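Researcher: We plan to redesign the surface later, but first we want a full-length starting point. Tokens attached.
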């Protein structure tokens, strides 16, 4: 059973989840902070090792005073969405009062193009060679979303940079575990029609039963689960595939 401390992408792969071979939501990959002049405070997520995968900080809206200090051309721009309110198919947007999507474990129910892409991704992950993802990533507008921010340079190098081991095996392990979980079919019949793994992405955390929490803890730790409660949603790695079999996204964070 793989247990990953989550990576919260600081808007990346998004991405999404103490430094071990697992990634912790509380262990965000950050630039090293200069040593303080005053006596050091107890370790926090701001001082975690660099080679770990991150959980995003809660998004704070600027105060009225802060807004007044912004350049005039930025003061009318919309504020960032609060945690759990970001837009886009890869961002959590749950309706706590609406009907829950069906949780499916039966892979035979997948459309053939979706099943084929899932199998190709699982096979690539099992090789342990991050380069096996390159032909599946594609180029240009056909590339899957790998971050909530812009990616400069080679996407494979970007993925390797997110992996605690530096070679991408950690990310491949997460991908395989995610794709072995149940899935949900979201946005059926809309422009955001997607099959998404793991199913936790489409279910409010407070609606998971005991059995489902056991499945969740195969991917994240109980501590990560507590951290994710501040978002009200699963914000570790999730992977989406369109009904036509296109790899849509693989991100973590909110």
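Model: Full-length starting sequence:
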């Amino acid at each position: 059973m793989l247990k990953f401390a989550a990576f919260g992408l600081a808007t990346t792969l998004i991405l999404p989840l103490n430094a071990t071979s697992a990634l912790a939501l509380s262990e965000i990959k950050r630039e090293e902070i200069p040593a303080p002049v005053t006596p050091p405070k107890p370790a926090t997520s701001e001082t975690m090792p660099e080679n770990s995968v991150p959980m995003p900080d809660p998004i704070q809206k600027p105060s009225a005073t802060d807004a007044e200090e912004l350049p005039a051309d930025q003061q009318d721009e919309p504020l960032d969405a609060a945690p759990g309110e970001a837009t886009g198919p890869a961002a959590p947007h749950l309706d706590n009062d609406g009907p829950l999507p069906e949780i499916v474990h039966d892979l035979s129910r997948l459309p053939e193009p979706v099943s084929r892409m899932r199998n190709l991704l699982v096979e690539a992950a099992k090789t342990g060679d991050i380069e096996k993802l390159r032909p599946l990533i594609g180029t240009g507008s056909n590339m899957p979303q790998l971050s909530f921010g812009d990616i400069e340079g080679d996407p494979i190098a970007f993925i390797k940079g997110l992996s605690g081991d530096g070679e991408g095996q950690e990310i491949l392990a997460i991908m395989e575990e995610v794709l072995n979980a149940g899935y949900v079919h979201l946005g059926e019949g809309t422009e955001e029609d997607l099959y998404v793994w793991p199913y936790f992405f489409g279910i409010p955390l407070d609606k998971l039963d005991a059995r489902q929490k056991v499945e969740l803890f195969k991917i994240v730790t109980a501590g990560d689960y507590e951290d994710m409660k501040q978002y009200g949603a699963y914000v570790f790695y999730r992977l989406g595939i369109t009904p036509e079999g296109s790899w849509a996204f693989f991100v973590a964070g909110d």
